[in-house]
Amino acid sequence: MRLLIIDDDTVDRMSIVKTIRAANVSSEIAEAATAKEGLNALMQGAFDAVLLDYRLPDMDCLDALHAINRHIAHHVAVIVLTGGPTEEDLQCRCIEAGAQDFLLKSEVSAQTCRKALLHAKTRQELTLQLLDAQHRLQLLAENDPLTGLANRYCFDNKLAATFERARQRDIRFGVLFIDLDNFKLFNDCYGHSAGDTLLKMVAKRLLNVLHNNELAARLGGDEFAIVAQNISGTQDLMDLSARIIKSMEDPFVIDNIEQIVTCSIGIASYPECAQNAADLCRYADLAMYHVKNTRRNGFYLYSEQLQAKVLYRIGIENALRSKNLVPQLRVFYQPFVHAKTMEICGAEVLVRWQHPSLGLLAPDRFISIAEECGMMGVIDDFTRGASLRQLRTWRDEGRVEQSFQIAINISASTLHDRSFPDAFKNDLESTGRDDLRLSVEVTENIMVADFENAATALTQLRDMGVTIALDDFGTGYSSMSYLRQLPISVLKIDKSFMQHVPESPDDVQLLKSIIALAKSLALEVIVEGVETLAQMQLCQALGADILQGYYFSKPLTVSEFEYMLLREDVITLQKPAR
C-alpha cells in the first residue's frame, strides 16, 4: 500500500510509522507536515490511504477532507487521527466529508492500525467499484451506444446547463439540428446494418470538425444535434455548418461501395432566436425542415419569416391529410380555343382547394406539398372522376359537341402508380359512354424518375383512345427523345414563352421554331399564356392549332363555363377577360 501521513507533529508521525511497520502491512510511506504539503503530494502521485491529523496548522480536518475530494482526481481512503476525544457529531461530519475511519492516536496499536488500514482499503476498493459502475451507467444513460456520441438525454441536460450559464454570464450560443438526406432510401436499399455503419462514420466526421466548446449528439435515427457554446455571432454557427457540409463531400465507403451522403442543417441561436431550450430546438428543427423541403445539402438560419412559412406548410400538409379534403376540392375549366375557327373546342381541367380558413387556393399553393406528402393520388382521382362525370353531363345535355375534349393533368405519383391505367379505364367505363374525348397532360420532369414505366402507362392510355400531351415544353429537359419515344400527339408550349411576345424578336423566333418543330413531327400545338390580341394573332400566323390563356378566359367554375358556352361573342372580345 502507498500511505501518506499528514501530521504537523514529527513525534506523532514517527510513532505512526513505527506502528504501521509493526503491523506487518506491506507499505510505502510518505509524510507531510501541513495540509498544503499533503495536497501537493496527493496531486503528484496516487496513494491508497491517507492518515490525516485532525488538527493541522494551516487547515482543519473538515476543510482538508473537502479539499482532497475537490482537487484529487483519484479516490483515496482517509483515516482521521485525533489526539483526544471528539464529539460524535464531529466524527459523523468527517465521515460524511469522505473519511473512512476515525481513530484516537492513543488507542492506535499495531493490531488496530492493521485492521483500520485493511478495512479502509477494502471499503475504498468497493467505493471505486461503485464509482466505476456509476460511470458506466452514466455512459449508458448519456451516450448513444451506436455512435458513441451524446444521446438525447445528455443533449437536453447540456442544453439546459448551457442556457443557465448563458443567462448568468450574458454569453451567446447556438444549436444545430442535422438530418441526413435520403437516409431511409439508403436503409431500404442496403439494409439496416449498412445504415448503422453509415451513422457511425457520419458521427466520426462530425467529431472531426468540432471544437472543444461544441457537443455532438445523436437524437435518434439519422438525426444529430450540436450545441455550440461561446460563439461571437450567428456567423460562427454558419461557418460550423459549412464545415459539416464540406466534411460530407468525400464518399463513404461501405462494403466496398462508395456512397455520396449529404445532410440538411437547421440553425437557431441564443439570444436572437429563442429564450428557452424548447423553442430553440423547435426553431432549429423548423430551419432544418425548410432545408429538407427546398434544396437539401445545405443549412438555414431560423427567422420569424421562416417560421411563418414552415408553419403554413405544416398546416397545409395536415389539412391535405384530413378526411375532409375531397369534399373541399373544386374543379375549374379553362377553355381551349381553336386558332382558326375561334370556337371553344375543349378545356383544361384545373383543381382548386376551398380551404376552410384560407379560402380558395390555386394549385401553386398546395400541389407541390401534396406531391411530397403523398396526397396527389387522392387529388388526381377526384379531379379525373369529377371531370369525366361533368363531360358526360355536358354531352348528355348537348352543351358540347362530340369533338369537345377535356385535358387532365397527371402528377408524377399517379403516373408512376402501376394501377393508374386500370383506374383510368374503370373511370371511363363508369361514365357509360365510349365517345368522350380525353387528353392527359404530362410534363417532362415527372417522367425522369422512371421513364420506362411512364412510357408503358402512357401507351396503355393511348390504346384506350386517350390523347397524350407533353405539357410545359421548353421548361424542362426539352429532349427530342421524349417526342420520339413516347406516344405523344400534342405539344403544349409553356406560357413563359409568351411573356415578351411579340415585343421581343428573339422570343418570337423561338416560338416560331418550337411550333415548326412540332409540325415537322406531326404534333398538334397548344399555346398557353395567350393574354393579348397581338399574341393571339401571332400564334395564328405561326400555325398554332389551339390557344389558351386569360385573353379568352380565366379558369371557370362549371356554371361560369356553361354560361361562356352560350355566349356567341365571347371569343371576339378585344380585351382580356380577367
From TrEMBL:
Highest taxon, organism lineage: Bacteria
Pfam families: EAL, GGDEF, Response_reg
Keywords, in A-Z order: Phosphoprotein
Example of a GO biological process term: phosphorelay signal transduction system
Domain EAL: 313-569
Residue ranges of domain Response regulatory in the record: 2-120
Domain GGDEF: 171-304
Modified residues (4-aspartylphosphate): 53
Phosphoprotein in keyword set: yes
InterPro entries, sorted: Biofilm_reg_signaling (IPR052155), CheY-like_superfamily (IPR011006), EAL_dom (IPR001633), EAL_sf (IPR035919), GGDEF_dom (IPR000160), Nucleotide_cyclase (IPR029787), Rev_trsase/Diguanyl_cyclase (IPR043128), Sig_transdc_resp-reg_receiver (IPR001789)
Presence of keyword Nucleotide-binding: no
Identification of the protein by name: GGDEF domain-containing response regulator
Species this chain originates from: Herbaspirillum rubrisubalbicans Os34
